[in-house]
Design a protein that fits this description.
With about 450 residues, the chain is mainly β. It has seven helices and 22 strands. Pfam families: Exo_endo_phos2, SKICH. Its EC number is 3.1.3.36, 3.1.3.56.
Length: about 450
């Protein structure tokens, strides 16, 4: 069933975030990822999808193709999400580590300062098979960072995993005044194939605990959970209870744990954690010697996790995907777009194909800004039917008249203002109808 999410208290802004992590083991996307994205139980409360993948096929010839086009996993996610009004906000890939950020189209003007970073930790920092990719942004005025990591494998490398995570945090620095480092953000989501294992217990004991649903016993021996008491870098990171079986390692094509000669011990390698920015310490606490400071909600932000589970039905990889849904609550800070676009509800003829727009006083326009015409259900900012340059003029409202080339037939469309300086869409209209076929060429007057 769909997780119940509370109504938003008055004066606060609430947003639903659906987060997925999956080590896909070099496999092609499965035919149907509807269940993974929760689209079969959609309750309309999901505002953003964050998808972190590891071991996406990165063979040299395939990677060259991906530079020219997109990779098949990005395509699969866009194809599935775009009909529901989700647009690819940004993506970042480092060899096999891929991060995709989607949002409802009408939120795009309020996602600002979008930046991405990559940190290689494989082969001493020279190879990107391991490391972290991140995307940060201001969401309605509150800073959020999404960090997808693939940390070193094997039971004995728990300390190396912590060292690599700390190195990623130190190396990832963003431009701008606020939130230059990952942990400077109001909210951080940390997820991926973190590769932590279950200590002490042997394989038969681990499998017996799984079969008898005694997961708490395994949770107590999980390396990441044990490290929370001793590793200062983990201070403030929260995780929901692991009420699902370990997600690694399975025989591909089955839900049977590893029967190969390697016989890897089952483990919760695939995890989703979050952290609220620390408040200023207000005095000594009983745990001061261990934890060092008080952590709590920053700038009125609250994060609520609704569920955290694995998806056993997906079998293309030796890992099972893990997903979680959160509600973020925060006070209103930004409620006006940088550019407001006005357009008629219907376009019946070429003469109707006009719009006016007004930029906010603090918005730095560029002569390379443009307004694009998009079919409802578009995938990303380049997926336009046509565009015109948003010419700079002195008038308060800039009138853009253009003739458009549309596909045959009528339909619902949206106009969006693309900012060259920020590389994002900073203004969008409500959907409007084009009722006739306009075959003229696309240009600005």
């Amino acid at each position: 069933t769909s997780p119940s999410q509370p109504s938003c208290p008055e004066g606060l802004l609430c947003g639903g975030v659906h987060l997925v992590t999956w080590n896909v083991g070099g496999a092609m996307p499965p035919d149907d990822i509807t269940a993974l994205l929760g689209l079969h139980i959609g309750d309309g409360n999901t505002d953003m999808y964050i998808i972190g993948l590891q071991e996406v096929n990165s063979m040299i010839n395939k990677r060259l193709k991906d530079v020219l086009f997109t990779d098949q996993w990005s395509d699969a996610c866009m194809e599935r999400l775009s009909p529901f009004g989700y647009i690819l906000v940004t993506s970042q890939r480092m060899q096999g580590v891929l991060l995709l950020v989607f949002a409802k189209y009408y939120h795009l003007p309020f996602l600002r300062g979008v930046q991405t970073e990559t940190t290689r930790t494989g082969l001493g920092g020279y190879w990107g098979n391991k490391g972290g990719v991140s995307a940060r942004m201001s969401v309605f005025g509150h800073t959020i960072c999404f960090l997808n990591c693939h940390l070193p494998a094997h039971m004995e490398n728990s300390e190396q995993r912590m060292e690599d995570f700390e190195s990623i945090l130190q190396q990832q620095q963003f431009e701008g005044q606020a939130a230059t480092g990952v942990l400077d953000h109001d909210v951080v989501f940390w997820f991926g194939d973190l590769n932590f294992r279950i200590d002490e217990l042997e394989i038969p004991a681990v499998k017996a605990a799984i079969d008898n649903n005694k997961l708490t016993m395994l949770w107590e021996k999980d390396q990441l959970n044990m490290a929370k008491d001793s590793e200062s870098v983990l201070e403030g990171f929260l995780e929901g209870p692991l009420k699902f079986p370990p997600t690694y390692k399975f025989d591909v094509g089955t839900d049977t744990y590893d029967t190969s000669g390697k016989k890897r011990k089952p483990a919760w390698t695939d995890r989703i954690l979050w952290r609220l920015r620390a408040t200023v310490p207000s005095g000594p606490t009983p745990n001061a010697g261990k934890r060092g400071s008080i952590l709590g909600p920053s700038s009125g932000t609250k994060v609520t996790q609704h569920f955290y589970h694995s998806h056993m039905e997906y079998m293309v990889s030796d890992h099972k995907p893990v997903s979680s849904i959160f509600t973020l609550q925060f006070p209103y800070k930004v409620d006006m777009p940088l550019v407001m676009i006005m357009v008629e509800d219907e376009w019946n003829s070429i003469a109707d194909a006009t719009c006016t727009f007004k930029a906010a006083p603090n918005f730095a326009r560029s002569s390379w800004d443009w307004i694009g015409l998009y079919k409802v259900g578009f995938k990303h900012h380049k997926d336009y039917v046509g565009y015109v340059w948003a010419k700079q003029e002195e008038a308060d409202y800039h009138r853009v008249e253009h003739e458009v080339r549309l596909p045959k037939g009528s339909g619902d469309f949206i106009l969006c203002y693309y900012s060259n300086n920020t590389s994002t869409l900073v203004g969008v209209t409500e959907p409007f109808q084009v009722l006739t076929v306009m075959l003229s060429s696309f240009y600005g007057k």
